[in-house]
Request: fold
Amino acid sequence: MSQRIAVFPGSFDPVTIGHADIVQRAVPLFDKLIVAMGVNTTKKYMFTFDQRTAWLQQAFAQFASVHVVHYEGLTVDLCKQVGASFIVRGLRNGTDHDHERTIALMNMKLANVETVFLPAAPEHAHVSSTIVRELHANKADIGAFVPKGMRIA
Ligand code: ADP
Reply:
């Protein structure tokens, strides 16, 4: 049987315990899980490319089947390049659902790539990179919302 390969795409600016929970739950479902950091030249990030990459690598180093990559352009093009038939996304609420559903249907139409949705754990449903950035910008401690051992200067 062919390998079941999935891509988990995101901005990961920065990676949070919400992302880490999705990765941990997706690992048993696939032979290979590619955590793919989107790089959009017109988008402003709070953390540098190198910093976001290092945090992702550190967060998922314990999983032999997880690979961290970065990409520009369409997620389905990355899927074709790496031979992935699945995209993994986390759903926190109805807004996420409405937004993700349209993209998932488009990705199916464009490239026959199926999206697998995992519901956010209730204890993580309030966690987002946006809120972590907001806290960090206001000098609040973000240690409880990012993977253990992750240091933010
Ligand atoms: P994007 O800009 O592509 O939404 P993010 O880095 O914000 O990138 O999120 C990547 C994926 O992780 C998305 O599917 C998002 O719904 C999911 N995600 C983010 N935060 C959480 C959370 N707290 N619990 C579960 N999934 C989450």
Remarks:
- The CA atoms of residues 47 and 136 lie 11 Å apart.
- The longest strand covers residues 32-38.
